[in-house]
Design goal:
Length: 387
Amino acid sequence: MDSEADPPETENPPKRHKCSACYKQYKKKEHLIEHMKISYHSLHQPRCGVCQKHCKSFESLREHLTGPLPKGLCSTIFSQQGCQLCLSLFDSAVSLREHLETCRLSSPAPMGTDAMPYISSQIDNLDSCDENGPGGRPRAIAMDCEMVGGGSDGSLEICARVCLVDEDENLIFHTYVQPIIPVTNYRYDITGLTEENLRNAMPLKEVQEKVLQILYNGESTGKVLDGGKARLLVGHDLEHDFDCLKLNYPKHLLRDTAKYRPLMKTNLVSHSLKYLTRTYLGQVNFFLEFLSALIVSSSAFCFLYDIQSGAHDPYEDCISVMRLYKRIRGQIHKEEGYGTLTSNNNIGESDCWQSEKVSNLTPDELYAMSRSDYRCWCLDLRPNLAP
Ligand SMILES: [Zn+2]
Ligand SMILES: [Zn+2]
Ligand SMILES: [Zn+2]
Ligand SMILES: [Zn+2]
């Protein structure tokens, strides 16, 4: 049924096989099937509010909507009714303006390094007041660590500071950490830390216990696999934090803004937290950003949400990852007809695509068979998933 011939006339173009999700077109049906096998399209992919095209990442959706080579009609409509931050589309310019009041966030006041060396005022409250969030879903905690350098060239990573923040942006734990080997570089420009900060700091072992106490939230390690009371942990490149803390936490409870597919630059490369914060939480536009860079001291530009412009502040970073997580978790995605995520959700890796029937399916039916290869954070709000 494929026509290999050149299109004879425009009124009667050769039949193309078009992907229902990303609109890529193929001359041959089997090429479309091949494409579906490896695309993992789903209702959870970032999508254009105008044409409903599915994109692999928010970054590619942003390109589709705003350029450098934006799609004509989509970009015209989006430029009038779309939010540059979360990329949602609104019915009118008025509702967009209302939305922006809540979507554009200002950065929190940094904690600085004058803060008390150790804060954990609310740990006790946590245990009694919120076992789980509304609907029995697990509550999330954001964590950030700052590292100083050890070894002869200062390249060994030593955890020197840990900060944990809850979903409501309350600081629940902050401490400086006693270096486990001699510090050869305090990386002052980045960490703002000096020898003074780490004098009398908390020993690593004690820090580990505190962190685990907060994360496991009274849940036994064995039961964590089914969720229970243990918390979801939000962070940016958590693996690195855990390496330096010399800790482990179950992978299925991690929500990592550096590893979450739709937030990544490519399949393998992450965006920086600084980039994600400006782009998704508070960047107004490139022109204003450019101006603000010129007029650094002008208070007129203080609405730009920018972190890490000086020393990294673990509290600010925690707030950023938590806000990113909540923004993505709050996306409204239709529930799939096939029920909730299970271990065999990934049909793309099963035999289903091999079966002979597949070649007779329409593009829409192929799309209906396709499953995501990552777990969308919107599922964290679905009560039927919280055991
Ligand atoms: Zn596609
Ligand atoms: Zn989703
Ligand atoms: Zn579009
Ligand atoms: Zn928005």
